[in-house]
Write a structure and sequence with these properties.
Elements (H helix, E strand, L loop, with lengths): L2 E5 L8 H10 L4 E7 L9 H14 L3 E7 L3 H9 L5 E5 L6 H14 L2 E6 L17 E5 L13 H15 L5 E5 L4 H10 L3 E4 L1 H4 L4 H9 L1
Parallel strand pairs: 1-2, 1-8, 2-3, 3-4, 4-5, 5-6, 6-7, 7-8
Helix pairs in contact: 1-2, 5-6, 6-8
């Protein structure tokens, strides 16, 4: 089953609650919270994303799909676990200590949230193979992390395809999420490559018919 995670990265604050309501009634599966600290990526939206996450957790029954694009992963993991997200994902590039990564995986799982590991376009899937049996999801960035509205990098779908093949060959049952440049056309390419969770931001936010747009993503 294909699921849609709606990114609220570029939602206008003055219209946020109305937008969240419209996205939920369009039958998305998750709200995608892109947390940026100004260190791991240039942009800093820590306060805004925390505000959006709190608002959504109070007004919606849908799960939060939290994507941490931050350098101090442990600090933000503790902060967001208090909101009981359905999925909590951190970047493998942010931590150079394998034991720390394994400890974070255990901490997130013990909290009851699903744990994901994200990889940027230039990161090989070899980097995360050792963790695949212990997590619930891999997030493959299909754009450079840190900015909304980018065009999907075609070569990243080869990574999705190779990852899907590896998972099948090794009987590992986890989700593959793609994030960046997803619309009704690129969604089909991502699904064909092996993704089953699609993060869509500007495509959904700018849509005049969100119900139809979500349907097109899931087709």
């Amino acid at each position: 089953m294909i699921e849609v995670s709606a990114s609220v990265l570029n939602v206008d604050k003055t219209n946020a609650n109305h937008m969240f309501y419209n996205l939920e009634t369009a039958k998305i599966n998750y709200f995608h919270i892109d947390v940026m600290d100004g260190k791991f990526v240039e942009r800093n939206n820590v306060e805004l994303m925390k505000d959006y996450a709190l608002t959504i957790s109070h007004m919606s029954n849908l799960g939060l799909d939290v994507h941490l694009m931050v350098k101090d992963v442990e600090e933000f993991v503790d902060e967001y676990l208090m909101l009981e997200p359905q999925i909590l994902t951190f970047h493998v590039e942010a931590i150079d200590d394998e034991e720390k990564i394994r400890s974070l995986i255990d901490r997130i799982k013990r909290s009851g949230s699903r744990v994901g590991i994200a990889i940027s376009p230039n990161t090989s899937i070899e980097t995360i193979k050792k963790y695949l049996n212990y997590i619930h999801m891999i997030l493959v960035m299909t754009v450079v992390p840190g900015k909304g509205g980018q065009t999907l990098i075609p070569e990243t779908l080869d990574k999705v395809k190779n990852l899907k093949q590896y998972l099948e060959e090794n009987n590992i049952d986890i989700d593959i999420e793609v994030d960046g440049g997803i619309n009704n056309e690129t969604a089909k390419l991502a699904i064909d490559a092996g993704a089953n969770i699609l993060v869509a931001g500007n495509y959904l936010i700018s849509s005049d018919n969100k119900i139809e747009s979500v349907k097109k993503l899931k087709e």
